[in-house]
Design brief:
The protein contains five helices and two strands. By secondary structure, the protein is mainly α.
Length: 121
């Protein structure tokens, strides 16, 4: 039986549907990546964030920080980890509560507003 005859019938249809789903999934992944990059890098606060947090934040967290700094959200809705210590120390934005060290969100936002004010002069 010639090999191309396998493309006909239910098995061939399933194979074509599988290929189509895989292509649609690939396109969706690419679009999500582009959306994520756009949300992170094409923002008013992106330059400031990159100046202070380059190499610390992924696209999702960079977008979340941009949302917070630009006032789109009242709180930062991303993840903070040990990589934040150096940039927070440089900003003087570490708040100590008992034995815990936490980002001082008010200080971070104030530093961004100061940068924005100076940039607009």
């Amino acid at each position: 039986m010639p090999e191309d005859l396998n493309l006909y019938g239910a098995a061939g249809r399933r194979e074509e549907e599988k290929k189509q789903r895989q292509e649609e999934d690939r396109i969706r992944r690419e679009n999500r990546q582009k959306d994520s990059e756009s949300r992170a890098y094409k923002r008013e606060s992106s330059e400031w964030i990159l100046d202070h947090f380059f190499g610390v934040l992924n696209n999702y967290n960079m977008g979340a920080l941009a949302d917070f700094l630009e006032g789109k959200t009242r709180k930062y809705k991303g993840i903070v980890n040990h990589k934040w210590i150096e940039p927070l120390t440089e900003l003087g934005a570490i708040k100590v509560e008992g034995e815990d060290k936490m980002p001082d969100w008010d200080k971070i936002k104030a530093e961004y507003k100061l940068y924005k004010k100076e940039a607009n002069r």
